[in-house]
Amino acid sequence: MSCRCCRRCIPSTICGADVSDLFAYSTTKYIKIRDARLGLLHYGLMFLIVVYILVYQLIGKLGYLKFNDAQNTVRLTLQEPTQGCNPNDTGCKDNFASLSQLPYCCAQNSSCKTNSDGSCSCDYRTSFKDYNCTWLSGTDASVIRESSIVVATFIHEYDQSLNTTCFNSYPSAANNCDDLWLIQEKASLFAADVEAFTMLIDHSVTSPKSGLATTSRQMQGMLFVGDNGNDGDVSKAIKDELCRSNPKAVTAQEGGSSTDHSPCYVPPNSADGLDYFSVGTLLQATGVTLEGESYPGSGHSARYEGLTINLLIDYSNSRDWHGLQPNISYLYKPSVVPQNSGTFKTTLLSPSSLNGQQMLKKDIHGVLFEVRPSGQLAVFDFTQLLLQLTTSLTLLALATVGVNILAQYVLRYRHYYSEALYDRTADFDNISFLESQSDNHLRQELEDRNLPTSGTRERMILRLMEYGYRPPRPTSTASSERCNLSSAREP
Questions:
Q1: What's the pTM?
Q2: Cα(125)–Cα(129) distance, rounded to whole angstroms?
Q3: Which residues form the SAP domain (predicted)?
Q4: Which sequence spans correspond to the domains of the chain?
């Protein structure tokens, strides 16, 4: 009774459109279209999606792992060249090259001419000026900071004295102090054989989010000598020479073969489980030489001006197509800051008198090695795996939607596909009348229309509705009788 009342409240049409068509309910109905071309298109897309998600993303790109940035701490130490020993040990001998073998040094037995600025001009080195060279220990030649080290290549030394006249009376507008420190240049010196110095790198890596932590003694690393593609001929030749001169240079970090040109991977030297490289090796890996011009128009070499090198330590504990690795590995990736903006100088002051009025000032030009962490460490993560699987289900659903769109609007037989894909039911407005009829009456109606009479009561009603059955309209006589009956009942 309530459904009939509700139906009376709903208009049959809105703006000339059938209400049942406007507010028809759409639901999923599985249709099997017997067309191999359409099926192959659908299954082909699904196959590609499965290959992309399961093979490429999950297996190849390790989509089931969660990656977190690596962090590290570094200790850097510089050591002068020795005869294969620790300079702190008694009897350890240094192994510097002779000054006569270093083209940037003013050799006493050469034809060098001394200039007024303390430099000298030599026949064998016409591009830049030479200077006197000095022997320095690893401690004297280095300035160590947090995660960086300066390797001195050229030093300006000055004696400076405090101008005591500036403190005889308070300065005033008429009595200014023009020279607080009286400075006198003492020496300009190259550090001898600095390329032969060795730099020890002791580092540890942590990843707080994944809980991983280890030290360089427990890891294996390599020096990467890259080929950026935009290297000049000189830079490429320097890198190739490093790969060629090292018999252990290989083409890959793991499983590589021997090579004599860049890019290549070079194993570090080891002492007590710690890595060390010569300064010359690190310079070669970046494709620069201290004997090159610092920057266009400078008139000085990189040895005189200094330069800056970024040394990335790239950590990893996973490999594409191989998964998690039992140990963390790393790569040293040095790169030089463009020399026209990467020259480097630092200044050191040390008192030369007890009262602090005499100071020795050193302007140190050199190679600044900035060590930074890079890379990511991975751990298995179920949420990440679930995300990849959810993505695959979404793409599979999109494949079905895409094929449906092609079938309806693009392909040759789109009109036939559309008829097969969409099925419209009969108007359910008459279902209440049919439900009020007996089973025998329903069967009779089906027989009159030559329709099957089998099936449940609901199936028979749906069959009549699909045929287009409409209940008989009441005749005028029946309507009059109902009206008379209503009048008779009135008092």
A1: 0.77
A2: 7
A3: 434-468
A4: 36-64+381-423, 67-86+135-165+178-380, 427-470
Asked whether the beta carbons of 96 and 192 are under 8 A apart, the reply is: yes
Place of tokens 């020890």: 200
Topology of domain 67-86+135-165+178-380 in CATH is atp-gated p2x4 ion channel fold (2.60.490)
Nearest 5°: CA angle at 77, between 72 and 80? 155
Asked if 251 and 259 touch (Cβ cutoff 8 Å), the reply is: yes
Rounded to the nearest 5°, which phi and psi values hold at 37?
Answer: -65, -45
The tens digit of pLDDT for each residue in 259-304 reads 999 999 999 999 999 999 999 999 999 999 999 988 888 889 999 9
With beta carbons less than 8 A apart as the criterion, state whether 387 and 64 touch. Answer: no
Calculate what percentage of the chain has a pLDDT beyond 70.
Answer: 91
Assign 483 a pLDDT band (cuts: 50, 70, 90). Answer: very low
Cα 64 to Cα 58, 211, 327, 380, 397, distances in angstroms:
6, 18, 19, 6, 22
Supply the DSSP symbol for 430.
G
Q: Is the peptide bond before 263 cis (omega within 30 degrees of 0)?
A: yes
